[in-house]
Amino acid sequence: MRAFACIAVVALSAPLAPAADKLSFEDRIELTRGLMAEYANAKILLPRSKKALEFDATTATFDKKAWLLIAKENGPAARTGDTVQITKIDLEADRIVLQLNGGYKGGRHWYDSVQMGGGMGGGGNTVPINPNSDVNAPGGTSIAIVFHGPLEPIKAAAIKKLLAAVLDFDRHSVTEVYSQTLPPEVQKAIQDKHVIEGMNHEQVIMAMGRPVYHMRETKDGMELEDWIYGQAPGKITFITFNGDKVIKVKDDFAGLGTQVDPIKK
Question: 78 near 138, Cβ under 8 Å?
């Protein structure tokens, strides 16, 4: 009954996007997975800004004078060469908004203290995966890529190329860097975009992106959390956490309405 109820929510909830939005559900998933948690190097000074900095998708340009004035007022979110990370993605009617380093009120993140071994066999010195963490400004910012019309289907790789004037994504992604510190089976799961038991919330996000829906419940004294991926009709994946660890992964197929058929393997 629990899985049945979850699928009913997926099937009967409001559409994920307004009618004018031309992005399909698959387009949204690809953009989210391809951009979420990705690293980039700032190619210019990026100002801290309460309102998202506008970047024109048609001309691949931005208002340099306006950005400079914002930087003089609020200070930098990142200087040229600093490392930033995409921490949130909003797909709006005519724009894609990328939050960097937690946004205007953001601060240090988990990757600032993560270090990797620098020698063979794990016996060498360690180095931080974000070497600029000590010099980055304490806050973040947001960039709004403005398309001047309803969003058309576009891939994450095209967004990275579009932002080449301000951000350099031509470096290892967070998945490639961070996953090197994980057990081989978890590395493979992240690379294959699927989830296995024992992974934590952060690793699931790197493998699958953020869930479409999530819910919590207490069962047998355990605080359980379900993350739900997919959309009816189609494949629905349920990932159950106990605390920060995945304890169950289940795939179902949701037909029309609330009809559910098991996947045949």
Answer: no
> Could you give phi then psi for residue 112, rounded to 5 degrees?
-65, -25
- Structural domains counted in the chain: 2
- For residues 104 and 143, give the distance between their C-alpha atoms in angstroms, rounded to a whole number: 11
In one letter, which amino acid is 25?
F
Would the pLDDT of 110 be above 70?
Answer: no
Q: How far apart are CA 250 and CA 240, in angstroms?
A: 8
pLDDT at 16 over 60: no
Find, among 1, 2, 15, 3, the residue nearest to 237 by Cα. Answer: 3
Based on the fold, state whether residues 36 and 103 are members of the same structural domain. Answer: yes
Task: For residues 27 and 88, state if they share a domain.
Answer: yes
Buried b / exposed e over 46-58, threshold 16 CB at 10 Å, is bbbbeebbbbebe
Please check whether residue 177 lies inside any domain of the structure.
Answer: no
- When pLDDT is averaged across residues 37-48 and rounded to a whole number, the result is 91
Residue in 265, 216, 208 with CA at minimum distance from that of residue 237: 208
Q: Kindly state whether residues 160 and 202 are assigned to the same domain.
A: no
